[in-house]
Structure formats: structure tokens, C-alpha cells
Amino acid sequence: MKASILTIGDEILNGSTLDTNSSFMAENAVKVGIEIVKKMSVADKAEDIKSGIDFLLPFSDFIFITGGLGPTKDDITIKTLAAYLGQSLVFSQENYEYVTKLLSERRKTTVEIDKERCMFPENTVFLKNQKGTAPGMWLKKNETVLVSMPGVPLEMKQIFVDEVLEKIKREYKLSSLVNKYILTAGIWESFLAKEIEDIEDSLPANIGLAYLPKLGQVTLRLTGKNVAEAEVEKFQKQISERISDYVFSWEEKDSLEKVLGEILKQKNKKVTIAESCTGGKIAHKITSIAGCSNYFNGSVVTYSNALKNQLLNVENETLEQFGAVSEETVLAMAKGVLKLIDADYSIAVSGTAGPTGGTPEKPVGTVWIAVSDGKETIAKKFNFWPYREENIELSSVAALNMLRKFIK
Amino acid sequence: MKASILTIGDEILNGSTLDTNSSFMAENAVKVGIEIVKKMSVADKAEDIKSGIDFLLPFSDFIFITGGLGPTKDDITIKTLAAYLGQSLVFSQENYEYVTKLLSERRKTTVEIDKERCMFPENTVFLKNQKGTAPGMWLKKNETVLVSMPGVPLEMKQIFVDEVLEKIKREYKLSSLVNKYILTAGIWESFLAKEIEDIEDSLPANIGLAYLPKLGQVTLRLTGKNVAEAEVEKFQKQISERISDYVFSWEEKDSLEKVLGEILKQKNKKVTIAESCTGGKIAHKITSIAGCSNYFNGSVVTYSNALKNQLLNVENETLEQFGAVSEETVLAMAKGVLKLIDADYSIAVSGTAGPTGGTPEKPVGTVWIAVSDGKETIAKKFNFWPYREENIELSSVAALNMLRKFIK
Fold first, then answer.
1. Res. B105 pLDDT band, cuts 50 70 90
2. Residue B349 — pLDDT band, cuts 50, 70, 90?
């Protein structure tokens, strides 16, 4: 089955509200085998809503509509849908009683609500809103189902998951989808694509491959339609073997910091960090995982040379002779932080985050990363981008990945 | 002028990527006086891209298109636009040289790129991509301008702001807009709205007020259309006076960490931090500002009690009697870190970030923050949310804001 999403509201168009509703609906619809073919956002105007539906109709078995159901003047969805479908508005006793009860309970007093607010297109099938007053509406235009829901995320999510998707699963035949993931770090999308070009070319028509990149990481998603799970897994395995050096997980929702944390927890080991250019971001990533106290006691940000010397015992001669951004310095930092803080492994990072501070030999984006287990300490040089924010993120991802590979 | 936004990519439709590009474009276009009338997302399919443009064309002076410009097989925007416009693809020597140079510099070696990647519709006006290899493209269909940009947010943002909007401002007549900002921290949107309700009601029809909230902060934007700057500034001042306790800047692009950094630089003072539940995020925020080495030598993350004692000299009796999340502990942390690291001011944070670890007296979201100048040390308790990520961000924002107010 195919579906489109139509979000209604000036606040989405002018950028003051980030539309998170549509990605929530998409993600959940796709998981049950509904293909989302288009998304559209239009203003709170009857003409725009109508022309939007007209456009989406021929491509869609369902159109999921949110917004415009509130009590203010710019909420015109109900009237517009009735007019569009050629249906008159009729009073719903059922909704009147439900809303009266809900509001009376919430405000701890009897509430008289305006009967005007309980007028709906005559052929509406109602979808229960457990968290608010505007019900979801299930309507039909030719062969397409129009589902209208409130724009408030909390209310929309409940109606969409509990009512809309359940009704569709009960009443329609959905194609079965299989999604399999490969999470990689340390390789750019274009190199990755080159590495697995022949495998991608050999995929059957009913298995698709998508590249989902973010800074320093690429997730590969294989989607099989009406195909056995084992068939998709075969390609997941084949690709993973080819690029095994970069793969850190096969779970969609995993992150490097989570995977690293699980490895440490399993081995009953702890990690500490000495950060310079990353300025606390690696520690932030590690502590973003609940339960990190099992493998993390703490860390330091030694931004100045004086502090590298004072806390980590990096010798002033080393800093003067080789500079803060050097193999010698990060090696000393990685060893030094293990003496300061109780841990089994350490990460140390020093680089030129930018935008200024580069030299011809060490341009902005030059980053040295070291990892250590107390006995062995290794360092590697990276050349990232001349942009501060991206550099910090790329360095943090590379550092976590370097320790992950070092431990294994 | 009216514009639509068309984002291309299966990853947007299936919900695996949240489309932040379109709200960025909308927000920035609206500021210069362009009205966004529709947004649409379509799949990586030529037919879908074409029918999307066909639908948007009659409503739009400009269509801002993102996505599908990468080097992989599912990136088909260039070919599709050429076919749609009836233009042939021609080799661009200019782009070939630019991309070759960019990649060679990045990879520190001569890179031979595939000439296939430098084929563009013959009438393309190129928009310089300073952060990546795919240029922006400015094309025309009848009276509508089609602007195509990469979907990578970093690259899109640079091209959109530096090239697209600048070109439009130069070459088209836009209605004159005046935007004035008030940046606040430490007050929720609904309370803020209540505080200034009467001022908002008194605004003339040609001045609008928008609330742009993010965690712990709300930016107010006053937009005047065809109105004198002084008139908008009058309301900016009136609102600022009413809520002066929460205002930290009137510059749109400011951040708390930037404002705090400027105050420290001006006073020639330094700050250090002892973080527990925020786990490095405050240090990350401070070091995200270029030039922070003027006022930041470094900091510590003391996640375990043992490390709070070892590095910061928080007495074990204090930790045992009052707990890590207590006024006594953060006061000791704030004093202790000033002894460990050379600085004039300190911040200390300890809380229960969650999702577990709460008690009836200290539920998840309980956070103690202290600030110190070595002589005076004050602490404050906050009750945030039972969600880890939001808690860490809210605590970091509150901590920076608390030191800002402490210094002033």
C-alpha cells in the first residue's frame, strides 16, 4: 500500500516549527509495510489544502493529514474536508459527550462546550484521541482513505499508532518489508560505494540499498520487499565481510559510544580521556549513554599546554620541541591520563580545530589521536576539515572508533 | 516573492532522516522577505521529481531543491533536471578543476576524479560549494527559478545563505523586512508569553512576533513589514525591559557560550568546570567557540564519587552524608576545581540525568549547579525532565546562564 503525508500549518512553512510529525508517521508506517511516496506541507488555507490533496490522491492509497483541528480561527481542516468531499457537517453526540467528559475531568468542574466544535463530515469514522479533544477522522475520496489528525505531536502519535495503523493492519493486505542495517565508521560514502559497487549491482530488483550518511559515519540499509529475511541477510553478510574494517554494528539504533560501552562493560574495563581540541565532546558522547558509570569514572579537558604538563605530565620539552599537535604529545597525554584517573584504557586527542591556528606543516584539521591500554600506546594522524564544529565531531567519532578497534 | 521547497530522498520519506534542511531554508528565506508557500518531499525517482516540480511551478517564483547530488547510484537530480528542462549535459572544466583541487588538498595527494561527475545542464549558473564537491545550480523553467543544492546540511546551508539568498537579494525586489531578536534563557515559552501578553496584543498589524523555542532557551523574533526599523526597535526594547531577567542577547546568532566568552575575554578572566551529570557537555559548549583559549585552560569530568574526592577534594563524609547530588557536594566541587585548574571562575554540576537512579527525595531531573569566583560560591537546585539527553542540555544551558548572571 502507498501513502502520502500532508501537514497543514503556517508555522511549518515559515520555519518556526520543525516538522517532526511527518518523520514519525513515515518511520512507523514503513515498518508495517506501507510505502510513503510523498510528503507535503501547505498553509492554513482551504485552497492549498484542496490542491494538495488533489495532487497526492492519484499516488496514494492513504493520505495522512495533520493539523488545523484546533479551536482557533486558522483551524479550517474540518470545514475544508467536508467541502472537498461534498459532505455536510453533522453534529456528533458521541464526540460531544466524550469531550465534555474529558474537559470536565481535567478541569475538575463541569465544562459546557460549544456544540459548534462537534460538527463533522457526515461519513466520518472517528479515531479515538486519548490525549486531547479533537478526534482523528477516517474519510474516503474515491478509493483513497483520508486520515485527519491533530498536529499536536503527543495526540497525533497516539492516534496514529493505536488507531490508524491498527485499523490498516486489520483491514488491508500489506506487503511484507524486511529492513537490515550495516553501521560503519571511518570511511566516506563515496569510497564505501566504490568498495561494494559490484555487490550493489548484483542486488535483485526487490532488494534496495540506501546510504544514510552523517559526519564520519555511514549507515547502509537493505530493504527487501516480499522477500525472505534470509535473502536480505545474505547480502547484509556479503557486504559486511567486504567492508569489515569499518563495520561496528548491525542494529539500526546503535551508536559508536553505545557499542564501545557494551564492549567495555562486557570486559569489565574502564576508559578515561584526555581531550584538547575536542574539548569535552568525547566525554559527552560517552556519558550520553545511560549506565556509563560502569565503565567511566571521569576524564579531563587539557586545553592549555600548561595543563597538559600539570595534570598529565606531558614534558614541557615535548610540547616545545614537537608542539601540542604531535604524535609525541598525544602519546604522552594517553599515558599521563591513565596515571591521573583510574581506568584500563585511555583516549587522547590533540589537533587544530580551527578556524585559525593552522601552519603549513599542520594545517587546520590536523588531529593526532592516541589510544592506550597502559602497556601499548598507539597514535594516528588524521586530516579533517577546516571547520571547527565538523572537526570536533569527526575527531570524536574517529577517537571512539580507534579505541573500539584497539580493544577488539 | 514566493518560494517552494522540494527535498529529494528516500531517506526523508521513510523517516530515517529528519528533514532539518527545509526548516533551515524556510527560516532564512522568510527573514529576507520570501514567503514559503509549499514544501514537498519526493523519492529518488525521476518521475516523482518531475511531477513535484510541475505541481509547485505555478505557485512559485523560486523552487529550492535539495538532495540527489551525491556520487552514488540513487543520486539522479542532475540528469532529471536536464531532461525536465530539455537541456543536454555538458562537461564543466571549471567544476572539474575546483573539485580536483579541493579533494587533492583534503587528501594531500593528487586525486583523479571521474569526469562523469562534472556534467551539468548546459544553462547552469553555478553556486559555489565551499564545503563539498557538488556545486549548487541555478536554473530556469519558464518564469520560475529552480535552485538545486546538495542534501548534506553543512553544504546546503553555506550555499543557501552565501550564494542563493545573496543572489536573490541582489537581483530581485523583495518586500522590506526588519527582523529584531531577543534571546532569552531560563524561562519556558508559555510563561514568557504570559509575561508579555499585553505587549503582544498591542503590536500593530505590520509587526509580527514569533516564538522560536529550543531546550532552556526561547528566541523572540519581531518582524516588521514595510515599517521603520525604529518602530520595531521600540517594541524590542519594551519587551526586553519587561523580561530583562532572562535576556542575554539581541543578536540572532549569539549563544550563551559566546556571550559568556565575550564577558570573560573583556574582563580578562578565565573559567573552569567540574562536571558530573553533564559529562563534558558544558566544556564542549565553551570550546565550540573559536578563541576560547583566551579564557579556558581546561576542565574535569568527575563522574564517580572517588574522582570527585581525588581530583576536587570533595570530602568522602560530604558525599556519604549528603550524596553526590546535593548543595554541599556542588559547592565543594566548585571550590575544588579552582584549586586544581588555574581560573578565576568555576562552574560545578551534579544531578541525576536518568533514566534511572532517582529517589523519592531526588527524582530523575534533580540537578544542583554551583558557581564560584574563589571568594563567593553559590548553588541552586533545578528540577528538570526525566529524560537523559534533555536533562544534560537543560543543565548545561542553566549552568552557563548562572555564571553569566553571577559575573555581571
1. confident
2. very high
| Residues in B 214-273 with any Cβ partner in A closer than 8 A | none
pLDDT mean over B341-360: 92
Q: Which of residues 338-357 of A touch B (CB under 8 A)?
A: 340-342, 353-356
Among partner residues B40, B301, B356, which is closest to A298 by beta-carbon distance? B301
* Residue B43 sits in the same domain as residue B166: yes
What would the pLDDT profile of B40-69 be if each residue is shown by its tens digit?
999 999 999 999 999 999 999 999 999 988
Instruction: Using CB atoms, pick whichever of B27, B307, B354 lies closest to residue A297.
Output: B307
Q: Is B129 on the interface with A (CB under 8 A)?
A: no
Structurally, chain A folds into a number of domains equal to: 3
Same domain, A164 and A195: no
User: Residue B288 and residue A388: Cβ atoms within 8 Å?
Assistant: yes
Contact B42 A38 (CB under 8 A): yes
Q: How many whole angstroms separate alpha carbon A403 and alpha carbon A229?
A: 33
β-pair partners for B205: none
**Cell numbers at B388, concatenated:** 537523559
Do B162 and B183 share a domain, yes or no? Answer: no
Q: Binning pLDDT at 50, 70 and 90, where does residue B114 land?
A: confident
Q: Is the same domain home to A229 and A266?
A: no
Q: Which residues contact A5 (CB under 8 A, 6 or more apart)?
A: A22, A25, A26, A36, A38, A39, A40, A63, A64, A65, A66
Examine the domain organization and report whether A167 and A273 are in the same domain.
no
Proportion of chain A above pLDDT 70, given as a percent? 99
Q: pLDDT digit string (tens) for B152-185?
A: 898 999 999 999 999 999 999 887 788 899 999 9
Q: Is the pLDDT of residue A108 over 80?
A: no
Report d(CA A280, CA B366) in Å as an integer: 22
Query: What was the pLDDT predicted at B77?
Result: 92
What's the CATH code of the domain at A216? 3.30.70.2860
Contacts of A311 in chain B (CB under 8 A): 298, 340
CB contact under 8 A, A30 and B14: yes
Dmax (CA) of chain B: 79
Here the CATH number for the domain that contains residue A261 is: 3.90.950.20
| Residue B160 contacts A, CB cutoff 8 Å | no
- The closest of B78, B43, B49, B47 to B63, measured between CA atoms, is B49
Query: Same structural domain for residues B9 and B34?
Result: yes
Say if the Cβ atoms of A38 and B40 lie within 8 Å. Answer: yes
Question: Chain B interface, mutation test: which of A51, A301, A350, most B Cβ atoms within 10 Å?
Answer: A301
Among B221, B249, B277, give the residue marking a domain's end.
B249
CB pair distance less than 8 Å for A296 and B303: yes
Q: Do A30 and B15 touch (CB under 8 A)?
A: yes
The residue of chain A nearest to residue B281, with distances taken between CA atoms, is A284
Q: Do B342 and A280 touch (CB under 8 A)?
A: no
Region of residue A368 (left: phi > 0; alpha: psi -120 to 50; beta: else): beta
Range of the domain at B266: 256-407
Please give the grid coordinates belonging to residue B258. Answer: 559566546
Residue B189 backbone phi and psi in degrees, to 5: -50, -45
Preceding amide of B355 cis, omega within 30 = yes
Q: The pTM is what?
A: 0.82
**Domain CATH for A15:** 3.40.980.10
Closest by Cα among A183, A184, A174 to A33: A174
Q: Report the mean per-residue pLDDT for chain A.
A: 93
* pLDDT tens-place string over residues B266-321: 999 999 999 999 999 999 999 999 999 999 999 999 999 999 999 999 999 999 99
For range B329-350, the mean pLDDT: 98
Dist. CA A287–CA A92, nearest whole Å: 52
Residues A303, A364 within the same domain: yes
- Number of A/B CB contacts below 8 angstroms equals 237
Q: How confident is the model at residue A57 (pLDDT cuts 50, 70, 90)?
A: very high
Do B371 and B398 share a structural domain?
Answer: yes
Q: Which of B171, B193, B221 is the last residue in one of the domains?
A: B171
